[in-house]
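Project standup — Tuesday

K.O.: blocked on the structure for the chain from last sprint. Re-posting the sequence here as requested.
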Amino acid sequence: MVLERKIMGIPFVIPYFLYFILMIYFFSIRNSENLLGTIYSSCEISIPFFVVWWSVYNLYELREEEGGEIFFTYPINVAKKELSKNLLFTCAYVVQSSVFLSVVTYLLLHNVNIIIIINISSQILFFSALSFTIMILIRDSGWSAMIAFVYVCVGLFTYGEMLGKTNIFLYDYNSVDTNLIVNNIVKCLFFSFVSYIVGYILLDKKINIR
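H.V.: unblocked you, prediction finished:
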């Protein structure tokens, strides 16, 4: 894992800049009347998306760098190795994001809402799986990240309407109930599972559209 972090380079530290910026922002508005809604809504729009940096650049050397095909000549299951690597980094990202959310909400709201943190964790898994599959398919880190970013923008600016059934954002945490959050978690897990399966098959069969 240490070697993989070094290979990723600068993209590895980008999520940590996000935590720092969010922390400053939340403490600057700590007297806001709608602090709870602002914290959770801001986190679900930003934190899940930033796992894309890790998911995409984990595959950079294999899928985008010239000569990456040589890895397929090694006596290993490349698809299994890359999926395992993605899940390892995703789990690490989920843990650190959950700790960040727990600390921030405890300090500012004096409360930690576990079900919302689980929901945001499932959204992280969704974005990691989505970018994993896109990167395998098109072999371009810039476009892979852009597609995920467009998804976020479309969801944000249309309040999820243009995304239809594929929308995984809740937006307003002041008006959602537990059942809605649980349903969203199940949706994220389902989409993530399907996306990982598709990505695994594409990589195992060495299929791409580049």
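K.O.: great, moving the ticket to review. The helical segments are 2-8, 14-28, 35-57, 60-64, 78-109, 114-138, 141-157, 178-204. Residues 45 and 153 are 9 Å apart (CA to CA).
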